[in-house]
Structure formats: C-alpha cells, structure tokens
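Task 17 of the worksheet. Students: predict the tertiary structure of the chain below and write it out as structure tokens. Keep your answer in the requested format; marks are given for formatting as well as content.
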Amino acid sequence: MSKVFTVDIAKCNGCYNCQLACKEEHADNDWRPYAAPQPETGHFWVKLHEHVGGTIPKVKIYYEPHLCNHCENPACAAACKFDAYTRRDDGLLILDPEKCTGCRECEKACPYDAVYFNESEKIAQKCTGCAHLLDHGHKLPRCVDACPTDALGFGEASELQDFVVGADVLKPESGCEPRVYYRNKPGRFIGGTVYDPVEKDVIERAKVRATIGGKTYQTTTDEFGDFWFTDLPTGKYSVVIEAKGFDFKVFDAVDATAPDNYGVNLGDIPLDAAK
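Model answer:
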C-alpha cells in the first residue's frame, strides 16, 4: 500500500474547512503514539495559501492547500539524529513525539515549512495524515473528509494514477520526492480595459497580442472593452493593442514574474485616434 494526497486547485473555493478540521481534530487532543496535542495557535498542519493576482478591478485569486508532503526522500527524517521519523507501510511519515528531542533540525531541513515546534511540549510536530483515524476504520484524513468540493483527495497511488501522472508537486528541485500531487494550478494572467478617451466609451473587438520568446497569444476585447490572457507562462511580455481607426498601443516588457502577484493589470488603456 502507498497512500498519496491529491489537490485539484480548480475545485478549491477557499472555504478553509480543511484547515479548520485539522485544528479541530488535533488541537488539545492527545493522539499518542501518533502525535501529542497540537497547540491551539501557531500550528497549521494543513494551511490554505491564498494567491492574489492583478489589481482592482482586474483581480483573480486561487487557493492552494499545503500540508506535509510525506516525501519519499524526506529531508526532515534525514536531518533527525534520533530516529524519531518512521515510514508506515501505507507511506505516511510519522514523527514520534516520544523520540523527538526538540533539536529542531528537522524543522530547519523541511523545504515546505511543514514542520512546527511545540513550545509547550518542546517537540517538533507535523501532519500525521490522521493515521490514528485510518488505523481505527476511517477511510480519509479529517481535512479530506471535510472538503465540500472534493478538491482534496486521498487514497492508493495505484488507484489515483489518472490524477498523479502528469500532476505537479511542490518544489520538485528539492529532491524530496513529495507525495502530494497538484493539478490545475493557474498560470500567469495579463488583463486590461481599452477605451476611446474622446468618445469616453470602451472599444470592443480590439485585437490584443502578447508575445514572449517567439510565442504569440491573441485575444480581443469584449463588450466592456476588457481583455484577458490567462494561464500564461511566467516571463516578460510585449503586448500590442490594435483597433480600427486608432493608433497602435505597445507595452514592452510587461513583467509577469512577481512571486507574490501572479497577474498583471494594465489598467484603463486609452487609444489615440489614427491621424
């Protein structure tokens, strides 16, 4: 048996049920030998990350749950000198609260910030995959069971190959071989609104091109003068806007690389009448 988690970002609506359910299951509940009680504050063994792109009114948002990746080659376990980490037969990686000495080396080693330090217990802690529930007849961890949109999944890797094959993982360059698989993470976007400053009206059906490295994406403005390029690769784009009766408008080096903003709003764009 080899269990994995799956995350379909397109289905996640940001309800935070996974994060709340994890807190309810583990905060102040002693599940030794699986885990000591999770503190009421500071720990998020499942944490929902909110990614915002663009600026008002051209804003898009998506949510990305993060948890321990129960890696095949875990950096946390490699850093532990006290054999506190154990790989179960089902693939879940457990941190034994009785063996942990609180040295915090595993916390430093984890590239996913998924290991927390319990100041009260003086031990490191992390997601257990709700192994205490699985061993007592439950089929799903609490976070997965609490997800109302089925954005989170859990099961045998062999039975989830349609999702796993071709899916993304977080920080693959770490070499940890994470076992939480993501699909439908949106790419970058560029948007804007085109208008005629003389007539004080939007311009419909303007042609818009975004070019990067010899690849060109094309779209047209809608009835509101808006255009959107979505799911773009990260990079810097040349954007050209063309409309009948108007001069070209060119934006060079539109920067769609910011790590904390996955979209660019070019704002309200006036076009000058052609001479």
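Marker's comment: The chain has a mean pLDDT of 96. The radius of gyration is 24 Å.
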